[in-house]
Amino acid sequence: MDESKVLHLGMLRAVLAILQWWGFNVTVIIMNKWIFQKLDFKFPLTVSCIHFVCSTVGAFVAIKFLKIKPLIEVKYQDRWRRIFPMSFVFCINIVLGNVSLRYIPVSFMQTIKSFTPATTVILQWLVWKKIFEWRIWASLVPIVGGILLTSITELSFNGLGFCAALLGCLATSTKTILAESLLHGYKFDSINTVYYMAPYATMILAIPAMLIEGAGVMNWIYTHQSIYSSLVIIFSSGILAFCLNFSIFYVIHSTTAVTFNVAGNMKVAVAVLVSWLIFRNPISAMNAFGCAVTLLGCTFYGYVRHLLSQQAAVPGMPRTPRTPRGRMEMIPIVNNKQDKA
To answer: Are 115 and 222 contacting, i.e. CB atoms less than 8 angstroms apart?
Structure first.
């Protein structure tokens, strides 16, 4: 096969990988919002727990029976010393995402989640005393400015949903930073990550979900119409959330870091557009402009990080003090997203 055909096949594979990633991600977000808003199943802890259970079963089947990925062996003591703390932060991150989705529109929630690069840099600077070049700080200005403009002009603003989304950004940043130290020595892919973390997350969340939302869930089951079709939708969202991890694994191996960054920000724009077409939440012109500024800022931030990583990789060039950041750090463990709602 000549070089041009190989190049075209590679481009086709990258486009298909990005499209299926967008499809799974946007579908999971829209289904979760539909569950909270249209099915009146207003129980984010229970929805998160169902997702964790589906991910636990799915990862077990994928690794043990289908042999899609080889199992990465983790020492027993490391499971509690390293995996469990990561699972706790992972659990908090997913729950906060679903809580925010319960109270605010998808468009607003996704825009706030784009604040994650800023919270990551600020946390590393304040807590871990990392030093960043001025270009990194400059790239955060449009992100912060866009978030502020979007928040001020949001017509469906809700304080609880806003705080949950913002705390979700902090949880995502904490997970990313902790992964550098806690998972050092283990080269996890997205499937093995879910295989180890989802069972712990289920264990952490199951009792709080039953205590806080159990009575409400039982009342919903007895009073809701079309209960069986509604349960199918709820559990399908959990299955699709697990499938999202396969799409992430596929897109990582089919694209470059720059393409992944740009595609990730375009995915947010797609999610915002699709959610508006379905739910018709009011969006002002200034609100849309703030969202666009935020996404452009995130793209610029990713581009700056890529330039600095390329500079550090060139022999003889001075290495700029920075925090190492590979593509895997940009990936949500289950959705996204910062991505998973």
So the answer is: no
Find how far residue 122's CA is from the centre of its chain: 19
Could you report the per-residue pLDDT of 68-94, keeping only the tens digit for each? 889 999 988 889 998 999 999 999 999
pLDDT for residue 325 is more than 80: no
The model's pTM = 0.85
3 state SS of 180? helix
Cβ count near 128 (within 10 Å): 11
Measured CA distances, 19 to 13, 266, 295, 318 (Å): 10, 11, 19, 38
How many whole angstroms separate alpha carbon 321 and alpha carbon 133?
Answer: 7
Residue 6 buriedness (CB in 10 A; 0-12 / 13-18 / 19+): exposed
Which tokens in the block code for residue 67?
Answer: 């042999």
Here the tokens at position 164 are 């949950």
Nearest 5°: the CA angle 209, 35, 153 is: 100
The span from the CA of 232 to the CA of 281, in Å, is 26
Closest residue by Cα to residue 244 from 226, 220, 222, 267: 267
- CB distance 130 to 187 below 8 Å: no
pLDDT in tens, 160-191: 999 999 999 999 889 888 877 777 777 888 88
Distance CA 186, CA 72 (A): 8
